[in-house]
Amino acid sequence: TTKKTPELFLYLLQNHDQWVRKSALIELLWPEYEEDKASSLLYTAAYYIRKTIAPYHSFLEISNTNGGYILHTQNVLLDTERWESLLASAPQMNKESIPYYVKMMELYKGDYLQEYDFWWVESERQRLHKMWLSISLKMAEWYRGNSQPEEAISIYEGICSRHPQEEEAYWGLMKTYAEMNKNSLVIKWYDLLSSVLWEELHEKPNEQITNWFKEWQMAHA
Hints:
The protein is mainly alpha-helical. The protein has helices at 5-14, 22-29, 35-53, 79-88, 98-106, 122-145, 149-162, 167-179, 183-201, 207-219; strands at 20-21, 60-65, 68-73. Strands 1-3-2 form a three-stranded antiparallel β-sheet.
């Protein structure tokens, strides 16, 4: 069996129900081989996929047509697509709908195909991550504005632990703690952000955050 088989399957699944040219698949998976050798590897990998998914033919089927492959899906809803459809039909964020958002965000177990480092996954991973991040920040802001600081803190901390360079979440924590008069924690999160950014990127926190922090410090001197 070829070690590229799982990658071929995941690529076809990401592009399910769309025709993908064989030449594009060869370019993606076996660019270093001569055409004949690469074609044979592609054929073998597709054969293994077909064999593996045969018991699930009422859900998944691969067809070889016009110099390309299609992975057909039926009676299948991919978790990413389910999540996106829940997001698309989400009501406006308010007291009644916030539990809907909480449930929906619990379905996001981690970044898209996070255990794989295929380069072609990156743009889809980033796209879904941006959606997750923007809803998370929006929820935290909502909690902050509705006198539920503990819930806001929990979301902001979740973002920081998952994505230690996400400045917006640190700033959210600083503002929340400032509103709670927990001054030592405002300083703690600013220092943490500064050290993470310096170690990882050799950068300082953005100007807006730095100015906010300086003003806050002067007011609390």
